[in-house]
Amino acid sequence: MNNLSVEHLIGIKELSTEDINLIFKTADSFKEVINRPIKKVPSLRDITIANLFFENSTRTKLSFELAEKRLSADIVNFSASGSSVKKGESLVDTVNNILSMKVDLVVMRHPNPGAASFLAKKVDAKVINAGDGTHEHPTQALLDAYSIREKLGSVKGKKVVIIGDILHSRVALSNIYCLQKLGAEVMVCGPLNLIPKNMKDLGVKVSTNLKEALEWCDVANMLRIQLERQDETYFPSLREYSMLFGLNKEILDSLSKKIVVMHPGPINRGVEITSDVADSEQSIILQQVENGVAVRMAVIYLLASQIER
């Protein structure tokens, strides 16, 4: 298979295992490109991409921009702050105005779940979801799984625990879908009131004991507390959360085996993970960042190859 079975990347849920493997295979080629002295290919020289960020973002936005530049695409950047959105313009009107500038592909982050899916039905362009509310963040899940594959040789049969604020995390849901499609076992761990009730329905193990979860896993993916998405208090203090669910070097060294440590960023050092763990040999956090560019290049390239030129 050389083409994706989907026209847009809205969520991992819509992707087949073949789609994911094709993205990884394509990312392998692009990883070679970004490690060359000349890090650019002319693949999308006649394609225009709009990055629409209705929510703050640093790493994802930079990663997409870099991926687009490495593919030689033309880029239009849009930020909701200081735009006509503040004057009451609708999402579709905003995007249609941008598309009238002959944009072929839209990368969008939006605070509302389902915004990317809604947009894909309304506009004549490819849409990539760069995160929609607490729903999905598909490219993060793809780069996380790709990083596990790179480090451990395969995702199949591996045990991955996602630790932290599962309830408010779009990364967690996308990761669960992606890891399961690739044959991994998944557990979530955190305070019970930060774990959605439907986790067991998704075939995911649930634990509220950090040490127990770490002893079970091959890979621990540490999530930050999403304070900006919480409308109530879920635990007494960050200090108490850190004492119960924070990963430090003492805990890491006490485990009966060496595990791989991941984090989608941004890291709250000293809360969910200490600096000596984040910077340790067992951490692949910086590899995740590098792989993010290659995986996003692959997704953009594969969707753009469906555009009739």
Description:
This protein has 309 residues and is α/β, with parallel strands linked by helices. The protein folds into 2 domains: 12-137 and 289-304, Aspartate/ornithine carbamoyltransferase (Rossmann fold, 3-Layer(aba) Sandwich), CATH 3.40.50; 138-285, 3-Layer(aba) Sandwich (Rossmann fold). The chain has 11 helices and 9 strands. The strands form 2 sheets. A 5-stranded parallel β-sheet has the order 7-6-5-8-9, with helices on both faces. Helix 4 links the parallel strand 3 and strand 4 (126-132). Helix 1 crosses helix 11, helix 2 crosses helix 11 (285-304) and helix 5 (138-152) crosses helix 11 (285-304). The protein is globular. Residues 228-232 have low confidence and may be disordered.
What is the element layout, followed by pairings?
Elements: H1 17-34, E1 48-53, H2 59-70, E2 74-79, H3 91-99, E3 105-110, H4 115-122, E4 126-132, H5 138-152, E5 159-163, H6 170-181, E6 185-189, E7 205-207, H7 210-216, E8 219-222, H8 238-245, H9 249-254, E9 260-262, H10 275-278, H11 285-304
Helix pairs in contact: 1-11, 2-11, 5-6, 5-11
Q: Segments where pLDDT lies below 50 for 5+ residues?
A: 228-232
Q: Largest sheet, order of strands side by side? A: 7-6-5-8-9
Return the CATH architecture of the largest domain.
3-Layer(aba) Sandwich
Amino-to-carboxy terminus distance: 22 Å
Mean pLDDT: 91
Main β-sheet, in a few words? 5 strands, parallel
Helical residue percent band? 25-40%
* Radius of gyration based on Cα positions: 19 Å
Instruction: Return the string of H and E elements.
Output: HEHEHEHEHEHEEHEHHEHH
CATH H-level homologous superfamily name of the largest domain: Aspartate/ornithine carbamoyltransferase
What CATH calls the topology of the largest domain is Rossmann fold
- Helix count from the secondary structure assignment: 11
The proportion of residues in beta strands is 5-15%
Name the CATH class of the largest domain: Alpha Beta
Q: Supply the number of structural domains.
A: 2
How many strand units?
9
Structural class by SSE content: alpha/beta
Give the overall form: globular
